[in-house]
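Side project, low priority. Logging it here so it doesn't get lost.
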Amino acid sequence: MIDSYGRNIDYIRISVTDRCNLRCIYCMPEEGVALADHRDVLSYEEIEKICRILARMGFTKVKLTGGEPLVRKDLKDLVKQLKQIKGLEKITLTSNGVLLKEAIGPLVQAGISGVNVSLDTLSPGVFREITRKDVFGQVMVGLEEALKYPELSLKVNCVPMGIPGQEILKVADLARENCIHVRFIEMMPIGYGKQYRCLTQDEIMNQLTEVYGTMHPVCEPLGNGPACYYKPEKFRGSIGFISAVSHKFCSECNRIRLTSQGFLKTCLQYDTGRDLRRLLREGAAEETLQEEIAKAILEKPREHHFADPEIQEEDGRMMCQIGG
């Protein structure tokens, strides 16, 4: 599916729930947010139907997100359903890791290709400060359990906030002895994330080079999107960067998003897309759904303008409502 700017759109991030068992300070308030009624959230059957249509349109990669996707019951069943769709090559998952220990075995058996674990620090105290929950140990046990499956692509996502004690180099060190790709993800200026200044890619690269020496670029693709990867000497894994604001990669964007309530969102900043839930529940034919998806992709904006103070237009949803 080629959009109007010549980009090949072949990757969708699907939020299966807006619920989460953490309360990260850059994502939501301590008391949480108003949650969608269960009846308004897409069923697994509705998600599968949309993915079948997308596969016919040339989509090959699906990322399941939340909220926290593992709080939704029987997620392995959805993975199993999606793996049966011809053309879908990779089904992956982003999780905070709290429930990963029990979930990872059934997910691998169902056919999950990879898991991204969000982990901003290896300090239990700072973890509690960021997430407002005392579950650091559970996350680490989940990560250790995932390492038992060598066929699984395992990544750790870290948002480098520059707060005292975060010690991002210790997070980077996870890639030294383990087959883990540690990615530093720039804070997106959405919702509560606007309140924080994230360390830039260049600042982090300088810190890494001081400690590990030359950072060798990795040429082979390691993920679904435009992350750039580097490998210091004697590292089993790699270090990646996703810097959507300071190193804007809109010209290479290959993704769209589907919220848990069925809104097909074509750009993170703007409220552009289609209400697929309404079409599904009104009984629209698959041909109609495909036509509307194609129109939405052709209307996908050229780029975001998060760094431009003159352009204030944006989606009113928070990240937990859009999908990570």
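Brief comment: The chain has a mean pLDDT of 91.
Revisit when time allows.
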